[in-house]
Write a structure and sequence with these properties.
alpha+beta; 3-stranded antiparallel beta sheet; 15 helices; 14 strands; about 45% helix; about 10% strand; HNH_nuc
Length: about 400
């Protein structure tokens, strides 16, 4: 182990600036193989530790919990390592290729599913030669991309239970979210084919509808924005289940002084689930929200609360929707139901809550406007957009909008 760590220290000390592309790739290939071999040794060691009950030494009952606590692995990754370690004794071809560095830890974790107890039992009952399956799947892993390995394993398991009862799709659906110190969230989900198709269809509809001119977001960013937009649409529709007599809505708590202060004020506002955001972000959320005044005593307990007021009443929003037809930011095609009503002059600075001071903006462009971009409606009804440096954005056609009066 000391020699291994010394070798890694030597690699880390190398200067990677002089080599150009091909030389760097040649360096990368054996590193990937070494990573695979280390993953194989980790899985093998975890299995032996599990058999011997080694986790008890540190006061834990399972190696999965040990890997999460001592190895800082996620719940999903810890489960994959444990599953792989358990499968290797049943799959010698996979074990050999894994140890040689020809198979990745992720591939091994997928193939390991065929050696789960229920699948081993089903294979034995049907006379399946597991040795042949082991060789075939390992061959796919050595030669093909990860997605092909997953398809091959799914095909095998599907054939193994082709005459069995149709499984309940809800049993295997999972969504795990982890909140970080800054309130941001990362997560992982597993959906059945139909559930996944529904999610992809919904996301794709939002992605395609929101692709304005000059959109430089990556595919991953587009899909993440689409997911947030779906949640925002659901909250705005008011059709979600009632929680203790109230419709679920985004809750922001911020002091009046911080709300009125034009400074960013980092970490001054708190969201309903405990995350903290800046006062600037709170002001943005307040553009098209409801305000409730709550007076707190010296001990922080509420002494008095005022009536909740909707900043933009429904009739003003309706008028803005008719006038603007959607997001007014140059080049954006987001529909009205994706948009907040933005105060051109902030209400905290005395801006009126009326149609003349209103502009429809989608979440992405509402954020832009609160970070230095500017939109302005001309006397002829056209909207114009400026960057923070004062230059105008000309992407896409100018929006003129329909007449201000329309039939109900």
């Amino acid at each position: 182990m000391d020699e291994l760590l010394a070798g890694l220290d030597a690699l880390a000390a190398e200067d990677l600036t002089p080599p150009f592309g091909p030389a760097l790739l040649e360096r990368l290939r054996p590193l990937l193989a070494a990573q695979n071999r280390l993953a194989a040794e980790i899985a093998r060691t975890v299995r032996e530790a599990e058999v011997s009950g080694a986790a008890e030494v540190d006061g834990l009952t399972t190696m999965s919990s040990w890997l999460r606590g001592h190895g800082h692995l996620s719940e999903t990754e810890a489960a994959r390592v444990v599953r792989t370690g358990r499968a290797l004794p049943h799959l010698p071809a996979l074990a050999a290729a894994f140890a040689a560095g020809a198979v990745t830890g992720e591939q091994a974790g997928v193939i390991a599913r065929v050696a789960e107890p229920e699948h081993l039992t089903a294979a034995a009952e049907q006379g399946v030669d597991l040795e042949v399956v082991d060789r075939l799947l390992t061959g796919v892993a050595c030669e093909r991309p990860h997605a092909d390995v997953a398809k091959a394993v799914h095909h095998y398991l599907d054939q193994l239970d082709e005459d069995g009862p149709e499984p309940d799709p809800t049993e295997d659906r999972r969504l795990a979210m982890t909140k970080h110190a800054d309130g941001s969230i990362t997560g992982r989900f597993d959906l059945d084919a139909v559930g996944g198709e529904r999610l992809q269809t919904a996301l794709e509809s939002v992605v395609q509808a929101g692709r304005g001119a000059g959109d430089e977001r990556t595919r991953a960013q587009q899909q993440a924005d689409a997911l947030v937009q779906l949640a925002d649409n659901a909250l705005a529709s008011g059709s979600l289940p009632i929680l203790r007599g109230h419709k679920p809505q985004l809750l922001v708590k911020v002091a009046l002084d911080d709300l009125a202060d034009p400074a960013v004020g980092r970490g001054t506002a708190q969201l309903g689930f405990g995350a903290t955001i800046s006062a600037a972000r709170a002001r943005w959320l307040a553009c098209d929200g409801q305000i409730t005044r709550i007076v707190l005593g010296p001990d922080g307990l509420p002494l008095e609360h005022g009536r909740t007021l909707r900043l933009f009443p429904p009739h003003v929003r309706r008028a803005a929707e008719v006038r603007d037809s959607g997001c007014v930011f140059a080049g954006c095609a987001a529909p009205t139901w994706w948009c907040d009503v933005h105060h051109l002059l902030a209400w905290i600075d005395g801006g009126a809550t009326d149609l003349a001071n209103a502009a429809l903006l989608c979440e992405r462009h509402h954020t832009k406007v609160h970070h230095g971009f500017r939109v302005e409606r001309q006397p002829d009804g056209r909207w114009r957009t400026w960057r923070p440096d004062g230059t105008e954005i000309h992407t896409g056609p100018h929006r003129t909008g329909p007449p201000l009066v329309t039939a109900a």
